[in-house]
Design a protein that fits this description.
The structure is a single chain. The chain is mainly α and about 600 residues long. It has 2 domains: about 5-340, no CATH class; about 355-590, Up-down Bundle (Methane Monooxygenase Hydroxylase, Chain G, domain 1). About 80% of the residues lie in helices and about 0% in strands. The longest helix is centred in the C-terminal third of the chain and has 49 residues, at about 545-590.
Amino acid sequence: MDIWHIIVIIINFAGALGIFLYGMKLMSGGLQKFAGRGMRHIMGKITNNPIRGILTGTIVTTAIQSSSATTVMVVSFVNAGMITLAGAIAVIMGANIGTTVTAWIITLLGLGESTGAFSFPLLILAISLPFMFAKKDKLKSIGEFIIGFSLLLLGMNFLQSAMPNLEEFPKFLEALSTISNYGFLSILLFIVIGAILTCLVQASAAMMAITLVMCYKGWIGLDVAVALVMGQNIGTTITANLAAIVANTAGKKAARAHFVFNVIGVILTLIIFHPIMNLIAKITEAIMGSNPYISVGAIGYNPTAIPLALALFHTFFNVVNTVILAWFIPQIIKIVDWMVKPVAEDAEDEFRLTYIGGSWMNTAELNIQSAKQEIEIFSNRVLKMYSFLPSLRYAKNEEEFGKVFDRIKKYEGITDRMEVEIAKFLTKISEGDLSEQGSQRISSMLRIIDNLESIGDAVYQIAALRKDKFEAAVHFDQHQNDNLEQMTQLVQQALNVMNANLQCSYSSIDLPAAYVAEEKINKYRDKLRAEHLEAIKHGKYNYAIGTAYSGLYALYEKLGDYVINVSEAIDDSEKVAKIEAEKTENLAEGIG
């Protein structure tokens, strides 16, 4: 065989794999857009009940067809304190079970001569569905799923065609046979190979597809295939660990727990490897009438026996390990506690993105959740920054005043950078395939972060005005100080309402409370303005005092305007969500 023939084979194989991966992406994306918001809601309701957590992880991963998306969400939720580490480990265990569905889809529908013929009718149906209901986001998502499913099957068909016969590569076959003949050492070697390849490809589904095709074509036997699958289970944990690079200690522990669980599962399987393989062989033989250990071309050889045995093993491996290790979640927590040491640092006073630095998922809809959580952190920082202002008033000397002012100045720089980075992330998301609701949410989030940054600017302006007053030795009387204290408290109440609206589900925000808080600020500003004009008329204080005083209460009122803008932006994103929900409900009633 010449070099050009090899290049053609590589190109065909890469193209087939690309179609498979794109089909998987569309399939997963359609499902996530159809049910992604509901999946996030379910994930957010997880308790410490291990069974419920395992079922949740299984259902979510089966529904969105992406264990990576599930584990990244888990890391984010642990990072935010929404679920405990124990609950996260249970969900990760369930995600491992849910990911076995991919192997069964490929085994039952993606291998064989009829695969391509089966996918074309689905492709035609999927193409027609979005055009028939162009204004229905839910139906377009279903159509996207069907397109993805058909492309997945088509990609599997091309993978089979691209995989050459063994006779064409005698030297490769000889080398493969050599490294497969070291007994248990060969199993360990292929586990490492499977882990490395999955880390590089960053798609365990693709590696599973390749492994199944190699089995079907007779390139590798069952022992080697099983070793590769165990390696893939370890390699796929890299996604969550990448997402946890910028996470806090709790998020890092959740990611490490995914790795620990899979490694322990592999070790337990290796201890009783041959009994397990004999059991899988007997089950396969009972179903197919053929032993998966029979060599290619031998009497009784069935090309579908090994892929079926591999799918059975994949399911057995994840289900049994989950059943066993679910009883040892406290011990897994102790291991990850030892692996991840808390970092002694004042994280709040440093620029540090928590969710969007390394948690990028290939589906735009699910990235919105990461952005929302980052915005919650942004809001908390703004409130923290605002809490420094009273310390300026009560500073006893220039050094104490300077420390507080410098801290506010540092936070102002942090808010500027947070706005820029979150805006970049949201812009990147908007370039993906989004539903109308998702697009509206991004637009609202851009408005939210713009106003949060403006709040930070207003706080810094108040601090700067206080600094000018301090340096000029301008002093307010008790009445003016009391008035400014009251205005500070009113703005604090508005900030608390805003923060609560950002922290909760956007569908349950308290917009009336935000308007009430805003109205109190405006009325009190009007009262202070009227009193101030009257005081100026009667010469109760000089120009410097009057300018500083009016400037401060005006800045507080301006800050309040930015605060109400945030809650209004949240409300806008929910209006579209409600409209879409009503459309779906009306459609369901029409069909019924």
